Task: structure prediction
Amino acid sequence: MNKTILVVDDEPVIRKILNDLLLSEGYRLEFACDGFEALQKLPAVEPDLILLDVMMPAMSGLEVTRRVKSNPEWQPIPIILVTALDGRKDVARGLDAGADDFIRKPFDQVELLARVRSMLRIKGQYDLLERRRQELETSLYLNEKFAGVIARHLEELEVLHNTGLQLITNLDSDSVLTLIAQTTQDLIPESCRSFMHLVSDEDESLLPVVFFPETNSKMIYPDLGVEPVIRQVLATRFPAQIPDVTAEPHGCRPAINEIRSLLTVPMVNQHRLLGTLSVASPDVDAFTVGRDHVL
Result:
């Protein structure tokens, strides 16, 4: 993108010379005849460099420089003073006012172009740093915002966790087991049946319990006919998937029709073996590798 230079000079001849010289270098030019016009144009033009005559009527170049440099939005714009003054004090006053460089009239075109390129390089480096700063601020803002969202979600999860613990604490064991069975039944096909074998705390005997979610009821069976598989899972604490319990060499004799293929997992709470949770299907090989992840 072509750099924009604002030329401020009350002499038409100087403006013409600078126009021909700078246009040939590919710069975009804006002109002002005096200091007031220059200050009025600044917000719209947003130049990358100001070439400013010192000796102008109404408002001198030094005063324009002071006003530009006192405005935080305009302060980064470099200013080259173009002056016919030759004294060191005049140069010092220009630099004290905030000018970044100066060149004396009549100026050498090669020298002027070199100073223009130098100031534009400095302005380009400043603009790059400013963009990086803004990007960093945006990144930090987004990180802080994201961290805040995560913190709020963690707080919400903690509340849900504590609420869940309170609910489980307040529920009796029968209600908890029923809740587990209902949740399991929601995850499996309607044709399947879920049941548990609970380990007695006294003699480690098994209590078979079959759940019927459709009537919100359960039934205790004296023997479901799959105790060999259940004992195996309790002993190994490892899930068992039986494609056809009637074909197993364990001596299984299912007591209800829904039990043909079987998937059983151990229920452990803080290293304590509570029993097993099973899902049975009336179909052979109902629990494939893609489906046994449910439990």
Notes: The radius of gyration is 43 Å. The domain at 4-130 is CATH 3.40.50.2300 (Rossmann fold).
